[in-house]
Amino acid sequence: MMKEPFPAASAVPNSCMWSRALRASQASLPSAGLCVKSLYHVTNTLGRHIENGALYRVFGGDPFMDTGGQELESRTTWRHVGACRRRFMWRKPFLSRFESHWEPFLTSKSIYSLLDRPFKQELEEVLWLHKLPFGLHSSVLSAFSTLQLLPEQDLPGSFGRLWCQRCIVVGNGYSVHGQHFGKMIDSHHVIIRLNDAPVKEYKKDVGERTSIRLFFPESALPNPLENSDNNTLMVFVPFKPLDFLWLREVLLKTKNKTTEGFWRQPPQEWNWNISQLRILNPYVTYEATYKLLQLNASSKRYATTGIIALNLALHLCQEVNIAGFGYPGNHDTTTPIHYYNTGLSRKNELFQHNLTAERNWLLKMIEWGVIADLTSHAFQAQNH
Asked: What global pTM score does this model have?
């Protein structure tokens, strides 16, 4: 049984006894008792002694509070608090989280930190010792020169303002085709999409809003604005050293671009607002592959963009849902892989991934309540 951290005794109103608090920590939220008034997510900015992501319960008759300790309006109800009930589920020991200063994107500062010895965090050691897609070994200079082209490198503050951020990762799977989940998907605060998946002609099924889109050279949209919002954050995922070169060339509009070394020819032009572009920290891919999926390094396989995006979402959001995940079975030769390009099978693109491990991990996370599948009957029944 996972033990939740609790505040110091002085922080607990005397209207609640510790015995009740301990019982509540082991109970499901609906049966935790009237003593548990609200939940709020405490970040490491409130004190060095508090581990980032630790969940504290506010006891007694105290008002509801948000992440900054501010009182919420009286109309806040258990329904609002319950929407954030999953936050504590995915912390240690469930998913082996340990980096309290975790940063999702590469920055010039994070590159500079690799010059210090000894390394202060495992994150820095991983970046230095591992090659792409898990680290920057032999690619540090290429990454640094690419970062110099980005005027903004950190996570925008707008992604951390909500006390209970509901996010959804929209996969490209055929399971959403014809299901008309568009409005439900668009109701989330943060909507993460993958690769070149279109929305323009499929908004009834997948919605039309896009907060974040993960992509790499071979999956880049030549004109992202056609299927993204003006304020969409485009997140570049480097899988090989050549990917940094491609990004520099399209940003600098180099005439004679590199064309060899890609498994599929990437766009020769890529037009986007450069201030809305970030580079994913390879540690996110490392964590998704070895901490979440627990793949064997000798297999030389890595997580799909979908699992990488889920790892990002689980760090950013208090509630994480999914839609469009899953692939047809090995013996299913008729069901398309994607909700678009329905007559085209592209299973040859998936050989570098362990789809069985990903499916098992997703099922486990859904069973534990860490994430929820929008396409499941249980989710639909609960939200109607």
From this structure: 0.77
